[in-house]
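DM from R.C. (forwarded with permission)

"hey, sorry to bug you on a friday — could you get me a structure for this? deadline for the figure draft is monday and I only need the backbone to look sensible"
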Amino acid sequence: MTDLILHEDPAPGVRLLRINRPEARNALNSDLRRALTDAFVTAPQDAALRVIVVTGDARAFVAGADLKEFADMSTAEVARLGVRRMWGVIADCPLPVIAAVRGVALGGGLELAMHADIIVAGEGARMGQPEINVGIMPGGGGTQRLVRALGKFKAMKLLLTGEPITGREAFEMGLASEVVEDDRVLPRAIEIAQRIASLPPLAIRRIKEVALAGEDCSLSAGLMLERRAFETLFDTADKTEGMRAFLEKRAPRFTGA
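My reply, with the result:
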């Protein structure tokens, strides 16, 4: 069987995960979900890695769940699939994740993109939550992440109509970090990843950790988390190197220490 996730290292510190199920427009079945989970478990264990970029191909980021697998399942059978473990592993990934979205990103595909920290979308991308059209609803965080990203009224229109939007519309609504020509999506995502990979990794991890934790707590609690994380970085070698390099007007050399 062809590898469902192709692993590449296009630049120092950058891991590219290329979803590779083109015959099904990269639709998520059990095998692909397991491969994604394994990839997101393994990557953070490599001390040399700083950023993950996840992408599909020109036709599809991920077309959604594979309905051939789900069509005849009962509630109990769906529950036994362990789908929540995959989403949990991706959500808990300590490394910054960039989604490079070309083609369709529908249902679980958009939910996967929303698990990223940065989304680079192609002008021709088609993004949406069409689950309502087949009698179900989003199950990988779509109802929650869309509302947080877009606000109630824009999110509810997408959720209740199932209608997709373009990459340009997603950017204008706040559902993408950048929108570029389709052939620039992956190069631009890697450019951003290279920039992040060149910066102090401990500070990068703390920023992600505190920003995401703060979404689910009060402002005062979030500010306390931020302050504590800020203070811990003053014991790092990278803080000393960064400040000395700034004062000495030279490029810093961050080591992650």
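R.C.: lifesaver. The two ends are 41 Å apart (CA to CA).
me: no worries. The CA atoms of residues 101 and 121 lie 5 Å apart.
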